[in-house]
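## retry 2 of 3
previous attempt timed out at serialization; input unchanged, resubmitting
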Amino acid sequence: MEINTTADQELQLVIFRLAQEEYGLPITKVQEINRLVPITKLPQTPVFMEGIINLRGRIIPVVDLRKRFGLEVSDYDDDSRIIIVEVNGQTVGIIVDAVAEVVRLSAASVEPPPPTFILDAKYIQGVGKLDGRLLILLEIDQILTSQETIALRQLSA
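## retry succeeded, writing output
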């Protein structure tokens, strides 16, 4: 997602909740949004790696974003969703607390993350302002290291 765009451009974002905060992903990175399905756990994987799912015959690795970001872990509920995204050319499921909406956001209302941001700044593309709300805009290609992306690619092969 480019935030260095002209002021009259709009971003179309999928907004989801994670630990009481709202996050946005470019809609172009989202393939689909699903309810939680049974996840097969795998041994000796990183703590944030929940396991794999079978999505219409494709094996998809699933990452819990709360764990990945070091946030307090909570039980999944009826609002929990798996967002199927593309991360560096790899299809990955990310577990979020709830998917809220799809919004259009003016590029002019996006600012770089503040330098004292709690999360690792590489995950954050910027902070968007929408109707008095702040949306944390994720740089989805940065949620996994290149080594983790290669390992996940081997898992789903």
